[in-house]
């Protein structure tokens, strides 16, 4: 039975297990020198998709086992020469992804190397967890930015909602065809028209609920990034905790509720979240018995009486009815406020650049400097975009 490892005390034991997991795959021996004569040009025998993630392979071979890395070349980030039964192979991360390459090897042997890499990665899991925890503690992190795609989801549902509202209005305004000699036909047409308007009404209600859900999903993500870019939240452990926090805690960390307009939006939005979003998210039952009624001599009475719970502005009925126009208007005003406030440079970074947020830039003042104006933020975005593009293209 394998001993449970405690890192970093058991690091040598872990390295032994990972070396054993590699089986017959070894670092290339001196008889294959010089390695670089054969590097960067061999036939690709195995490719990304058939191998572990490139960064896991790099960590195992370079940082854990100390294999020799031939370094960068044109469109190549790194290359590890290895051997299997005296045949030379190169494990390389190129622009087209990770691969196993060789001038004289076979795909069958490359498959054995691939299996060995998977085994080594599995054996190294305790070290990966320890390594990741250390990176979080040191705040050397990038946080993936999905703000733009989440916002596009909200915007898509909002446009569908408005389209359904327009369809309902057209159905309501269209006069029924009147036939003096056939009253029953006229009545039938009117009922069909009313039913069509009701279908649009139901569709608009569903789409409004979906748009509100999408808005809160977007802001759950947005507020974490705003805390980093606009508020200088640069500690990895704090960001990790914030990502797991409640929506209201994220709002208060990202935005200054001492500002009257921000505080007003907070009060209104938290009311929407509690009375609408939370009910839908909990299967239309809600957290406070919103879907229950008790028996009385006057019939069924909601369990959540005003004296029992807290009356609110946005009420739910048995049909989940509410003034969706009012809620959507509130959300749109809040988004406009963010985009035209001191948070505008951060909103540009998060919605327009597609860049991750970088905790070291929060802690060293880079974001604080860029937040001084939109012009400074655009300069930072251009600089970072160029650096990320060069890295992605492996243009060293």
The H/E string reads HEEHEEEHHEHHHHHEEHHEHHH
* Rg value: 30 Å
- Largest sheet descriptor: 5 strands, antiparallel
Q: What is the averaged pLDDT score?
A: 85
Helix content: 55-70%
3D shape: elongated
- For the largest sheet, list the strands in their spatial order: 1-3-4-5-2
Percent of residues in β-strands: 5-15%
> Unreliable segments (pLDDT under 50, ≥5 consecutive)?
305-311, 316-321
Multimerization status: single chain
According to DSSP, the number of beta strands is 9
Q: Gap between N and C termini, in Å? A: 47 Å
- Specify the structural class: alpha+beta
How many separate domains? 2
Total helical elements: 14
Summary keywords:
five-stranded antiparallel β-sheet; 2 domains; alpha+beta; 396 residues; two-stranded antiparallel sheet
Structure description:
- The chain has 396 residues and is an alpha+beta fold.
- It folds into 2 domains: 11-138; 144-393, no CATH class.
- Helices cover 56% and strands 11% of the residues.
- The chain is built from 14 helices and 9 strands.
- The strands form 3 sheets. A 5-stranded antiparallel sheet has the order 1-3-4-5-2, covered by helices on one side. Strands 6-9 form a two-stranded antiparallel sheet. It has a two-stranded antiparallel ribbon with strand order 7-8.
- Helix 1 runs antiparallel to helix 3, helix 5 packs antiparallel against helix 6 (183-229) and helix 6 packs across helix 8 (247-254).
- The chain is elongated.
- The model is unreliable at 305-311 and 316-321 (pLDDT under 50).
